[in-house]
Amino acid sequence: MEKILVTGGAGFIGSNFIRLLLRRRRKMHITVLDKLTYAGNFENLADLMDRTDFTFIKGDICNTRLLDTLLPGMDIIYNFAAETHVDRSILEAGSFVKTDVVGTYALLQRALKHRIPRFVQISTDEVYGSILKGKFREVDPLQPNSPYSASKSGADLLARAFYKTYGLPVVITRSSNNYGPYQHPEKFIPLFITNAIEGKPLPLYGDGMNVRDWIYVEDNCRAIELVGRKGKLGEVYNIGGGDEMPNIVIAKKIIELVGASEDLLTLISDRPGHDRRYALNIRKLKRLGWKKRWSFDEGLKRTVWWYRRNETWWRAIKEGTFKRYYRKLYHQRIRDARRGKGKH
Ligand code: NAD
Ligand code: TYD
Predict the structure, then answer these.
(1) CA 197 – CA 194 distance, rounded (Å)
(2) Which of 77, 99, 124, 304 could form a disulfide with 103 if both were Cys (CB 3.0 to 4.6 A apart)?
């Protein structure tokens, strides 16, 4: 029986990944290690708690003593655990360095000690920085621009170094922007869907023309599973959906799907250091046999449908400590935009 450790499994991608594994494989046991930060949500996994092939442990990847009890006998580790939101990293970078860099180091070091046969580091396309034309390849230099992407770059490079220096069997995935069920409403797509449902302003940063490469979360999870199984040790795999469009185009699609008013669109002052465009060359992943299944329009429709059906889930988040964060990050900027100061 395969023993699998998923760190950060109570978050957005981790919880989707676990569901994919449970749908697919039979003889395995999944252990989730998650600190349940503001972003981790027990509700994301609540329906799995009674299963005999699933164990949930609340804990920190920085806790090496805990790692020493959990790691022996594991066949594979997927390290999803991270602080993940760029805007929060701009407000406070310390927790990003702690979890993303120091936490990943602790996990790599303990994985080496316990001779774990496979370690999948979940990295991001943001490590490359911004690209105005063309697409990033795996061999391109890392030029991160936010404290989030810099911390993730630290983790990504430590994982590489543990392969090169100590022979730890590592593979690294760098995926583009995910969207889909269970994503925290601090992120662009779920924030806009839920604000549109609530009739609140949709705060677009800058001119709304920044571009991301979007991938439906299930397509990313299938790619991670494939790289975990078939990826060459020591190698990096880009994972992207190739659905590139300016934020304002997505905002308008959301407005249409929700049936809200375009008057909600509000251009507010830009995020500092805001990367203009991300785009990935995914030839290497395709060579492993991966194919995208979800078009952006289909994936977005399904995502809007999920947020409509799961209002209790996101309202509980939005009405909790999130309120304070939202007030701090958005209220003044939205007020300024309404007075005509938001556009530059
Ligand atoms: P998320 O913020 O929804 O979830 C992160 C999870 O990690 C949470 O459950 C949180 O409680 C847990 N966590 C945080 N610190 C921890 C610690 N010290 N110890 C144990 N658990 C801890 O994030 P996500 O969007 O699901 O992202 C998962 C991974 O994928 C991250 O590594 C992220 O950098 C990467 N990634 C995300 C995207 C995206 O678009 N969301 C794109 C590329 C890469
Ligand atoms: P986000 O979901 O934060 O992902 P990332 O910055 O890691 O790519 O943001 C996606 C894009 O949407 C990015 O260009 C910033 C923009 N954005 C807004 O315009 N308004 C918002 O309120 C948020 C959260 C993001």
Answers:
(1) 5
(2) 99
pLDDT digit string, tens, across residues 92-131? 999 999 999 999 999 999 999 999 999 999 999 999 999 9
Distance 187 CA to ligand 2 centre (A): 6
Residue 297, SS3 per DSSP: helix
Same domain, residue pair 133 and 198: no
Specify whether 162 is located in the same domain as 247: no
- Confirm if 151 and 297 have CB atoms less than 8 A apart: no
Q: Is this model's pTM higher than 0.90 or not?
A: yes
CA distance 126 to 143: 8
End-to-end, the C-alpha distance of the chain in Å comes to 59
* Cβ 37 under 6 angstroms from ligand 1: yes
Q: Does 230 lie in the same domain as 101? A: yes
Q: What is the pLDDT of residue 231?
A: 98
Known active-site residue 125: yes
- pLDDT tens for 196-236 read 999 999 999 999 999 999 999 999 999 999 999 999 999 99
Q: Verify that 205 and 160 share a domain, yes or no.
A: no
Nearest atom within ligand 1 for CA of residue 81: 7
Task: Strands of 96-249 (E only): list them.
Answer: 119-124, 170-175, 177-179, 202-205, 211-216, 236-239, 243-246
